[in-house]
Amino acid sequence: MKNLERVNRYCTICGTEAVYVCSKCGRPTCRKHYSLLRNLCSICESLLCEICGRNLSIGYCIRCGRVGCEDCLVQLSTISYICVECLRSWGGVHDCRQA
Q1: Are 11 and 57 in the same domain?
Q2: Which of 26, 45, 55, 92 minimizes the number of CB atoms within 10 Å of its CB?
Q3: Whole-prediction pTM value?
Q4: How far is CA 48 from the centre of its chain?
């Protein structure tokens, strides 16, 4: 357990002294790799849904290319998704979940 405590004092991204802990993943990070505005490490911030900006992404929309979370993407097959905004713009779908 002592090794784990020692590791947690260092940024898991660059190895410098950690001063923050990511609110999404719990990763210890330094000032350089932490967003005070979003309270997230740079890795989680880069993986945020581009549609709602709240949740981590699970895939990308095959039409617009934005990454999205499970609330903002509709699964079309085992590997493809479309965002609710593109699905609405294609017409006929009015009851998609709001992001």
Answers
A1: no
A2: 92
A3: 0.71
A4: 3
Which residues of the chain fall short of a pLDDT of 50? 1-4, 7, 92, 95-99
R_g of the chain computed on alpha carbons: 17
Alpha helical stretches, state H, the chain: 2-7, 42-46, 84-89
Exposure on the CB side of residue 40, measured as CA atoms within 13 A:
13
Parent domain of 37: 2-46
Please identify, among 31, 46, 61, the residue that sits at the C-terminal boundary of a domain: 46
Report the C-alpha gap between 48 and 29 in whole angstroms.
17
| Helix residue ranges per DSSP H, 57-98 | 84-89
